Amino acid sequence: MNIPVVISRSLFILFTPLLIGIYAVHPTKRVATKAADTTRNTYANPVVPGDFPDPSVIRAGSTYYASGTSSEFGPHFPLFVSKDLVNWKQKGYIFKTKPSWALSSFWAPELFYHNETYYVYYVAKRASDKVACIGVATSTNPEKGFTDQGVIINYGTESIDPFVFEDKGKLFIIWKAYGLDKRPIELLASQISADGLHAVGDPFSLLRDDKHTLMEGASMLKKDGYYYLFYSAGGCCGVRCSYNVRVARATAFEGPYTNFEGNPILTANEKWKCPGHGTFVETPTGKYYFLYHAYNVADNIYTGRQGMLDELAWDATTKWPYFKNGNSPSIKAESPLKAKQILHDGMTDNFTQPVLADFWQWDYRHSKPITQLKKGELCLAGEVDTVNHTGTALTVRPESGTYEMRTEVLNTNPALKGLVLYGDVNHAIGIGVTGNTVQLWEVTNKERKIWSSTEIKTGKPVQFKMTVTDRTNFKFYWGQEANSWNELNQAASQSYDGRLLPAWDRSARPGLHHYGKTDEQACFSWFKITYTK
């Protein structure tokens, strides 16, 4: 059984430079593995490090599946698999290509299993009018992808944060409504058809946000005669976020619901802030765990909202739920299935596989990467739109605010080729080579600027290194000899303002870069990221 909690599409601020990282493995390897603790029965949060907002989780036998918001990076909705809830590996994406009806804002995928079919209910803005709707897709095997079935909820000016609940043989979908209207937000519900693909009957209200707490999302558990409606209140995203988790209950699905006097049941502590929007999953032993997101206080928006895990418990007298390890995200806790958590210090991709590794992502709105893999070499180019001043960025999700990334460029041509820290199509910074010139460059507000440049020897591969320390301190290096690095400095009178890297709902991403004609490829022999703190 599964259930989500809540999320806030707020209005906030600019993102920032970032960090990097990447979770998941495939044709590459994670490096410097180590146990989270000397004992086998504890784990440390996050369990899915890096940008992984609004996670949903289900269990199929002994296997757990999870997915989360991908926003404006494609492919859409990364899929993770685990056997123990604390060690997760990426196994592709819900969608390799964008559903035909959708435009952007791929938020809050909600996994569900019914009648031997896997479902995902998800949010996207419709191409025809840019209204956020809820779509549905199906699969017989999540690891082989989903087939889109179109829009299931199109209601008012915005419908987001879906959750599906089965009660007395009927299926219901819950969502957030009126978030863009001048009226209180409501958590609405509607019955859906037995095949899970169509709404049935009129929507009805479960809970109304009369106190204007920015109530969002919803998930539900039924236990001991009560329906427990979990939701998040406050702003989801950015440095001024205020997310927290709350609960209300009723004796009937339709309500009326009474809010818990002890709300919020999950809020910030000294290490984690703005916890919210997640899903509950029941283990074979009958325990409930909440997979949700939160910002690391130190790294904050530079790593984005990370995947967290905590156990839910129940007060024997009042029957209200609470989190076993306190009302804030746990730093360390008992492992659900006594598994040893394995942590990773980085990742290396040697491009030895016939297909691109699962963890690579790009800004699908403005570029279409063209990749060619051949024994230990990745050649990258891309088709870009007319507003693209950055080029093609092949990027990974961030995991830390302090890291080092490296690559080696094999070929020489007029295209600019190297490393990038990518916020969006108009905000990025990187180092690369064009012809016989190494450049440190920036794109800000549709303006492209060269900070510094130097000439190099032609006919030899060029290695690049970029370091990020404490989220905002950047250094850039190049070299053509083994273990010999030359720093390329920014202009003495200027410094890069990482706050220009957006976005309110996602972290910036580091990775590989190509800027030039599609027939002028950037060829790389490897890519490596190491977390140094």
Keywords:
single chain, 533 residues, mainly beta, Tachylectin-2, Chain A, 2 domains, six-stranded antiparallel β-sheet, globular
Describe this entry's structure for a reader:
By secondary structure, the protein is mainly β. The chain folds into 2 domains: 2-343, Glycosyl hydrolase domain, family 43 (Tachylectin-2, Chain A, 5 Propeller), CATH 2.115.10; 346-531, Jelly Rolls (Sandwich), CATH 2.60.120. It contains no helices and 42 strands. Strands 2, 28, 30, 31, 33, 38, 39, 40 and 42 form a 9-stranded antiparallel β-sheet that branches. A 6-stranded antiparallel β-sheet has the order 32-41-34-35-36-37, with no helix packed on it. Strand 5 and strand 6 form a beta hairpin. The protein is globular and about 75 Å long. Mean pLDDT is 90; it is low at 1-27 and 32-38.
Radius of gyration: 23 Å
Q: Looking at this structure, what is the CATH superfamily of the largest domain?
A: Glycosyl hydrolase domain, family 43
Query: Number of helical runs?
Result: 0
What form results from the Cα inertia axes? globular
User: At the first level of CATH, what is the class of the largest domain?
Assistant: Mainly Beta
What percentage of residues falls in helices of 4 or more residues?
under 10%
As residue ranges, the low-confidence spans are 1-27, 32-38
Largest sheet: 9 strands, antiparallel
Tell me what the CATH architecture of the largest domain is: 5 Propeller
Helical/strand content category: mainly beta
Cα separation of the termini:
37 Å
